[in-house]
Backbone:
């Protein structure tokens, strides 16, 4: 029988079943290799103390500190009515701040004996607030004795690694487990080609693993991190490079527009000229469409930069070449709106097969889940017979019943809302793989694009078309300055009196918390704002209609309404019959009402930076300037207010996406884009390590070009297999 390689040994054999179970369930660690790659989050110096003043709320923390005093109190309670209840309060200090520890009941005896003033220890627990003071209730602790017992051995060296931990498993227990498996690090297979490693002066993988877990100096940590960053960047980029290489081998039908077909007719009837950016990006797309392998292109464009027009021209080029194009939208509201705007832009060119249709006209079909049976049957028939050159729809397009005559191009709008499986299912409907154009209005920093969409070529539209108006954004601190909020509603009234319309956006719909992810908001119990649930559409609409906006036509729009009702509300708003639309983020993407000039975002601190930027892009779409008011009750000094100030200070989506990424962890960004697969990035920071990622991409491309199957690099193949566990493998296959 084969011996299991040391790093693939299951943890339950090495650490015992109980510890292994907790590691698997709470940290996702199954093997010795997984544990060796569970790196310390930071390091405490034995002689130094943690900054207690900077502890984050509601997070599990590990701190090194000294006991200042300990007091045992007795009290009466329901369980101990005779005053026999016991509470031990221990104050620990680091010189910069103090932190209260609390133990209750039978849990007081051991710490009462051990935590004497002057004792140094590591404490782990969840930071909470009691009586406006930070505290840890029932923390686990490990004494740092100076005598020769096992603690000193385990924490030898001045630097104590602090691991990402959970309530069930403290950092020092993880540290002891790592100590047990560390000898296996010698057998780690090095995925970097030796020439690359030596050329860049990087340490070997076994050495990096030893230095990251048991550093003697800060230089050890720096060496280890530099090396491990390269591993992560390089292995991921090799996976993407192989994906690009495989795609380049696939056959596709080249689609070249006819010289005087529907595209020329469409361009002739445009009332404006394309911006330079639109012309440049269109050329990149047309060049790709003319090749014999499938286009895979990501089109990034600021809100309102005219992506839809560029995509429509690409679709018309394919129709000209005898093929069909499908546009996939994330929601019905958006699919209907795209359909309306495409039909409007094309005029009689969209009336294929009808009397009065133009010579080169084609049919534009809408396909959504809520369509009636007869309309649906007709739409399906138009696709099979090729009467319809363009179909616009939601994921209803992906169902088995939908058959195309000759699918040549798939356009996916707002990629981040759309699963990879769905993209894949639609691509499977072509006789040969169709060309793929993915559009997003969420600006993605270059490094993230290289990391997340590394299998796509990228085009960027960063010029706004002429005639778009600037948007002024202001933060409205409702708690500090209630009169500012009153003024905000007056501004909305003024816009309506001037013949315009307004949006009011709320984080959720009604009596339950759903729309805005409550995890997004950083809890700070000091702030009353966080104690109440986020404001809801139904409550706010009611309050406005009876109060500050009395007499105006106020309507609501949210995700749980029936699709027909949603469409009716949007039609009335687009037609100018509604003055104020109170909505959830269903309006975030693609909704286009040029007459809407003002937007008030309630509890703006509950939204992410990119989301606020997206929402704001719904106003200022006509000739009148836009106004966006970010209402918050968060205090001036809070991180939430700084985020909102950042949004108010710039209209540059790329700048904001960097800020957003620096504030959230990359894992969120990558995890979201990588179909929920756990992010493989542990030490690589997408923004800071831009150079490493760019260089790794070049190196990876060179390696894959010379050896696509990685025959000469078995260790790299192994690392790739580990990165692309089945879920990720499928993800990239479907990319």
Residues:
């Amino acid at each position: 029988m084969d011996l299991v390689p040391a790093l693939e040994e299951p943890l339950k054999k090495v650490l015992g079943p109980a510890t292994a179970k907790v590691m698997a369930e709470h940290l996702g660690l199954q093997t010795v290799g997984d544990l060796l790659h569970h790196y310390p989050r930071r390091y405490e110096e034995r002689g130094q103390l943690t900054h207690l003043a900077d502890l984050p709320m509601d997070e599990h923390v590990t701190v090194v500190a000294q006991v200042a005093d300990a007091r045992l109190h007795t009290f009466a309670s329901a369980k101990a009515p005779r005053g026999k209840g016991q509470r031990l309060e221990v104050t620990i200090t680091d010189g910069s701040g103090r932190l209260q520890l609390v133990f209750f009941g039978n849990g007081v005896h051991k710490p009462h004996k051990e935590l004497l003033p002057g004792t140094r220890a590591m404490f782990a627990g969840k930071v909470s607030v009691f009586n406006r003071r930070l505290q840890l209730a029932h923390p686990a602790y490990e004494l740092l004795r100076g005598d020769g017992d096992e603690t000193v051995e385990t924490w030898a060296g001045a630097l104590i690694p602090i691991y990402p931990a959970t309530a069930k498993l403290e950092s020092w227990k993880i540290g002891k487990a790592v100590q047990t498996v560390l000898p296996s690090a010698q057998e780690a297979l090095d995925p970097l080609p030796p020439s690359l490693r030596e050329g860049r002066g990087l340490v070997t993988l076994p050495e990096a693993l030893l230095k990251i877990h048991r550093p003697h100096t800060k230089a050890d940590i720096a060496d280890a991190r530099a090396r491990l960053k390269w591993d992560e960047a390089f292995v991921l980029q090799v996976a993407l490079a192989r994906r690009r290489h495989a795609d380049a081998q696939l056959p596709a039908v080249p689609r070249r527009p006819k010289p005087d077909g529907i595209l020329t007719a469409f361009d002739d009837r445009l009332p404006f000229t394309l911006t330079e950016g639109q012309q440049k990006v269109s050329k990149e797309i047309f060049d790709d469409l003319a090749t014999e392998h499938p286009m895979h292109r990501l089109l990034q464009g600021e809100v309102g930069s005219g992506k839809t027009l560029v995509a429509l021209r690409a679709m018309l080029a394919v129709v000209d070449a005898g093929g069909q194009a499908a546009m996939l939208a994330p929601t019905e509201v958006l699919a209907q709106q795209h359909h309306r705007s495409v039909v409007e832009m094309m005029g009689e060119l969209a009336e294929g097969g009808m009397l009065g249709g133009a010579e080169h006209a084609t049919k534009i079909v809408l396909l959504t889940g809520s369509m009636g049976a007869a309309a649906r049957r007709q739409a399906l028939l138009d696709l099979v017979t090729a009467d319809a050159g363009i179909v616009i729809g939601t994921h209803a397009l992906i169902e088995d019943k939908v058959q195309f005559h000759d699918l040549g191009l798939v356009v996916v709008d707002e990629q981040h809302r759309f699963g990879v499986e769905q993209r894949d299912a639609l691509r499977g409907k072509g006789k040969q793989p169709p060309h793929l154009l993915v559009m997003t209005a969420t600006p993605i920093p270059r490094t993230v694009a290289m990391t997340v969409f590394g299998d796509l070529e990228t085009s960027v539209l960063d010029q706004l078309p002429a005639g778009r108006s600037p948007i002024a954004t202001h933060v409205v601190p409702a708690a500090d300055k209630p009169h500012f909020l009153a003024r905000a509603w007056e501004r909305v009234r003024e816009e309506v009196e001037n013949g315009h319309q307004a949006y009011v956006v709320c984080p959720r719909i009604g009596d339950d918390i759903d729309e805005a992810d409550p995890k997004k908001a950083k809890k700070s119990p000091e702030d009353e704002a966080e104690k109440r649930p986020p404001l809801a559409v139904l409550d706010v609409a009611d309050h406005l209609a009876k109060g500050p906006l009395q007499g105006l036509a106020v309507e609501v729009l949210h995700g749980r309404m029936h699709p027909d009702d949603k469409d009716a509300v949007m039609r009335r708003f687009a037609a100018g019959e509604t003055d104020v639309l109170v909505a959830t983020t269903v309006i975030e993407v693609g909704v286009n009402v040029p007459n809407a000039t003002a937007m008030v975002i309630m509890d703006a601190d509950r939204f992410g930076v990119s989301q606020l930027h997206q929402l704001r892009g719904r106003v200022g779409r006509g000739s009148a300037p836009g106004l966006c008011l970010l209402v918050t009750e968060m205090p001036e000094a809070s991180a939430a207010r700084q985020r909102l100030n950042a949004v108010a200070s710039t209209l540059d989506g790329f700048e904001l996406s960097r800020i957003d990424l620096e504030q959230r962890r990359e894992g969120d960004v990558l995890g979201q884009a990588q179909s929920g697969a756990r992010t493989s990035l542990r030490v690589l920071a997408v923004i800071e390590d831009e150079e490493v990622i760019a260089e790794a991409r070049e190196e990876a491309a060179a390696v894959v070009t010379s050896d696509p199957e990685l025959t000469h690099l078995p260790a790299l193949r192994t690392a790739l297999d580990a990165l692309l566990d089945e879920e990720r493998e499928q993800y990239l296959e479907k990319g």
Q: What stands out?
A: The CA atoms of residues 588 and 611 lie 7 Å apart.
